[in-house]
Amino acid sequence: MTSAEQPKPYGTEQSKAPVPPRRVRTSYLQQLKDTGGRFAMLTAYDQHTAQIFDEAGIETLLIGDSAANNVMGHETTLPITLDEMIVFAKSVSAGAKRALIVCDLPFGSYEVSPAQAIESSVRLMKEAGVQAVKMEGGAHYADHVRAMTAAGIPVMAHVGFTPQSEHALGGYKVQGRGDAAQAVIDDATALADAGAFCVLMEMVPADVAAAVDAAVRVPTIGIGAGNATTGQVLVWQDMAGMRGGKAPRFVKAFADVRSVLSTAAREYADEVRSGTFPGPEHSF
């Protein structure tokens, strides 16, 4: 074998960008990682936003347990149940036809054993029509991931800050600083080695996220994790400027939907009170 024929180390290939598919699958996200491409991910909890984001070309939609505090009014993600996640996920599956649909395993639906994780994931895939699940936790869940992938369930790992563990972590704090950086890298590599098709990192220093992305062959997703990851995710209400008050540092609002809806609601109420709406054109 000549030197020109010697295999190149992973990551040195100059591959062509993959052709966007009619349906995004985990293999397409891997192709993007292999070729230096990037992809976008947003949360979605209902049919209409799922359809809008799908048509806009968002590659991955996440039915996040963040529905608990962004839709249902809870203070944290902890109260939402698997049955409630299934309702939200069904709605997203009905609206999206192209994006890869991933659903969170909510708190209490997977921790007990790999068997519990498989059972909960099967319900999400059979009853709600999702194509993958996301599970929070570190290397101690490697056996869960191994069993789930062996059962045919694509698993997205979630490391760094894990909101379901906020009480154990002492609140919403950046993870992986200083000496704790290696633990994040070890968690990510253990879960990727166990079969996770992707690793999501939340609220970790940018240099640590970059080290994880270099250490694992699978795609990575960041939220508050710098710009070196393969993909990025935001809660859609944050992305669209729906929330009131101060947003986290890692959030960028790409619109001011809150003001648009507020103006529309006021104008509607004014026309109802004045008798302008409904007019003849709106009546039978």
From TrEMBL:
Protein name: 3-methyl-2-oxobutanoate hydroxymethyltransferase
List of residues binding 3-methyl-2-oxobutanoate: D65, S66, D104, K134
Family matches, as SUPFAM superfamilies: Phosphoenolpyruvate/pyruvate domain (SSF51621)
Coiled coil: none
Catalytic activity, as annotated: (6R)-5,10-methylene-5,6,7,8-tetrahydrofolate + 3-methyl-2-oxobutanoate + H2O = 2-dehydropantoate + (6S)-5,6,7,8-tetrahydrofolate
Cofactor(s) this protein cannot do without: Mg(2+)
Catalytic residues (UniProt): E202 (proton acceptor)
Gene (UniProt): panB
Pfam families in the record: Pantoate_transf
